[in-house]
Design brief:
Blueprint lengths: L13 E6 L6 E6 L6 E3 L8 E5 L4 E5 L8 E9 L2 E10 L14 E2 L8 E2 L9 H52 L5
Antiparallel strand pairs: 1-2, 1-6, 2-3, 4-5, 6-7, 8-9
Keywords: Cell membrane, Disulfide bond, Glycoprotein, Immunity, Membrane, Signal, Transmembrane, Transmembrane helix
Pfam family, one: V-set
InterPro entries: Ig-like_dom (IPR007110), Ig-like_dom_sf (IPR036179), Ig-like_fold (IPR013783), Ig_V-set (IPR013106), TCR_complex_component (IPR052051)
Length: about 180
């Protein structure tokens, strides 16, 4: 899987994350100034995973892919407290139910390796999905609030009307008992 380094400002801050379908992203591997040039997270220290690291590359390769390798793989650059993702690739097996992903990719079917041709996830490509989700959530929240305010207003008016009726009835009863008629 290729990491798009065209907009990377500091290669020392490169990372790969994997997000398995339906799970949160997991830190996978990061650049490290050593002989190997990278360090895998403990969960991914497996000889099936390897990296090509130099001044132009920070590419991930999976040899002998398995179904549990499926998911979204994202390369990015850590900038202080946030990650700026530069590219991503989907690894999905035939027969597996299609899952939503902002970064579709294609599998190289000619080998047993997990080297994938990645589709670039340029800035903002996956943002449209979240904008739609957030906008929909806000609209639904507004509708629910308006309905609840309407019900509250209706109940409040109904309560005020019945209190006024009860007060007039009590006043009339009191007037009849004393022999005076109230308007």
């Amino acid at each position: 899987m290729e990491c798009n380094m065209s907009k990377v400002t500091n290669k020392n801050n490169l990372v790969w994350y994997r997000q398995s379908f339906g799970k949160v992203p997991q830190y996978f591997v990061r650049y490290y100034r050593s002989n190997s040039g990278y360090i895998f997270d403990d969960e991914f220290k497996d000889s099936r995973f390897s990296m090509t690291v130099n001044d132009q590359k920070f590419d991930l390769k999976i040899i002998g892919t398995r179904e549990d390798d499926g998911g979204e793989y994202f390369c990015g650059e850590v900038e202080r407290t946030k990650i700026k993702f530069t590219s991503g690739t989907r690894l999905q097996f035939e027969g597996e139910e299609m899952k939503h992903s902002p970064t579709p990719g294609t599998v190289n079917n000619n080998t047993d390796s997990g080297t994938l041709q990645g589709s670039n996830c340029s800035h903002g490509e996956g943002d449209n999905f979240w904008i739609i989700v957030l906008t929909s959530s806000i609209i639904i929240s507004l509708i629910v609030n308006v309905v609840l305010l309407g019900v509250l207003y209706k109940n409040q008016r109904k309560g005020a009307s019945s209190r006024n009726h009860q007060t007039r009835t009590n006043q009339t009863d009191a007037g009849l008992m004393s022999g005076t008629v109230l308007p």
